[in-house]
Q: What sequence folds into this?
């Protein structure tokens, strides 16, 4: 992989990650006339739950569902510059133009019952391919492998930024999920706090470790592999399974067999294996309803400064689609009380996923 750094017209960083060193040199200049981005993000702490909430009103003006011919994530062409100046690319990362968190956040600090602070952090966009019409699961294994290295690179880089306490790479796909740009892409968030979900998982992991002397994820992984009824893929370094207490009608966890805190800690062999396993899982997901499944793919990894001995890196992929044409909406129990009620049993989902057939196409001209 080759990494090339550049700047966009308003000073934001852009990074090109090429599958091979034989790729063209990345020297294109952004010709747009863009004013420096302003950011008024702030965070406020809910005094009733102790959780931080981000406020980013400037995001109301972000790009919303443009036609394919005006996609800002496609390569630039003569007369139509985009967020990516080059006429083609493999994988690209750039600072979000409308970030929820930024290093230059300037919101005023408040005091009192509801503490507030600038939303200092970082938000990046990760474009997986310059092909607007393809899905992540249709990428060749070699490209998925490049993306794994990109996630690791960005996790390490954002972890070293001032104010960042947790790094979260993720992908949203599909209209039902609320995606506003259909080009295949994901994001990386650098939060100025440890997220509520991660904080709770670390609490449980600490209590389990104290009582049993073992990591809770290690025991979950061993139990799933031993029972086997919910396992979708069991490879040399990873196991993909439907969790026994799945919240969502479609949910899969991909867990490495070795406890590592984050993506940078994965070995080359583990990264190679993940690319193969993940592509197989995405094929199952797209074959479930014989359509591209709307999903969220979320990396759970250790915070920057705490819980690194307790966390166990894993990827959670889930969908709100409970049938081919019916969405699971979060009702009162889920939204207000955080008590989940799933309409699908994990065991039934595992059987259906195991028997589903991939329905995606492969990037034209790309190797498998």
A:
């Amino acid at each position: 992989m080759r990494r090339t750094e550049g700047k966009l017209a308003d000073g934001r960083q852009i990074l090109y990650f090429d599958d091979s060193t034989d790729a063209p040199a990345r020297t294109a200049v952004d010709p747009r006339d863009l004013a420096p981005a302003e950011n008024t993000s702030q965070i406020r702490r809910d005094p009733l739950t102790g959780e931080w909430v981000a406020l980013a009103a400037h995001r109301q003006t972000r790009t919303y569902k443009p036609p394919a011919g005006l996609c800002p994530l496609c390569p630039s062409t003569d007369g139509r510059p985009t967020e990516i100046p080059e006429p083609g690319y493999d994988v690209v990362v750039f600072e979000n133009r409308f970030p929820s968190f930024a290093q230059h956040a300037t919101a005023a600090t408040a005091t009192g019952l509801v503490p507030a602070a600038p939303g200092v952090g970082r938000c990046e966009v990760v474009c997986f391919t310059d092909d607007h019409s393809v899905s992540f699961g249709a990428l060749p294994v070699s490209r998925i492998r490049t993306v794994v290295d990109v996630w690791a690179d960005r996790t390490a880089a954002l972890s070293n930024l001032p104010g960042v306490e947790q790094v979260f790479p993720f992908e949203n796909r599909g209209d039902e999920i609320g995606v506003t740009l259909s080009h295949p892409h994901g994001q990386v968030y650098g939060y100025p706090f440890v997220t509520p979900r991660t904080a709770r998982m670390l609490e449980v992991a600490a209590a389990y470790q104290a009582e049993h002397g073992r990591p809770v994820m290690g025991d979950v992984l061993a139990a799933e592999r031993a029972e086997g009824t919910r396992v979708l893929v069991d490879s040399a370094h990873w196991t993909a399974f439907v969790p026994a207490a799945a919240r969502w009608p479609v949910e899969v966890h991909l867990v490495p067999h070795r406890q590592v805190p984050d993506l940078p800690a994965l070995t080359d062999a583990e990264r190679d294996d993940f690319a193969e396993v993940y592509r197989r899982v995405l094929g199952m997901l797209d074959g479930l309803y014989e359509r591209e499944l709307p999903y969220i793919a979320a990396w759970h990894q250790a915070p920057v400064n705490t819980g690194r001995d307790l966390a166990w890196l894993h990827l959670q992929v889930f969908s709100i689609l409970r049938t081919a044409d019916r969405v699971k909406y979060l009702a009162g129990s889920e939204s207000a009380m955080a008590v989940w009620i799933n309409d699908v049993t994990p065991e039934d989902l595992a059987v259906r996923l195991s028997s589903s057939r991939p329905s995606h196409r492969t990037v034209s001209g790309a190797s498998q």
Notes: The mean pLDDT is 94.
